[in-house]
Amino acid sequence: xxxxxxxxxxxxxxxxxxxxxxxxxxxxxxxxxxxxxxxxxxxxxxxxxxxxxxxxxxxxxxxxxxxxxxxxxxxxxxxxx
Length: 81
Description:
single chain, mainly alpha, 3 helices
């Protein structure tokens, strides 16, 4: 996770790319093919049989959410009318 000092739009986007890549590996490994984003956590709970992978899946989900919100806030703060 990025430190507070490293929270720039560019750094956050790079970190989100890393998170997405690792998440995609887990999605493919466990065939998590949910059509609705609300179904992905229950599906992961059922299909991911390795505790470390499940924990990492949850960590990536949370990190992605936090960073996504941070980049949105930064973009909104830097937009001028």
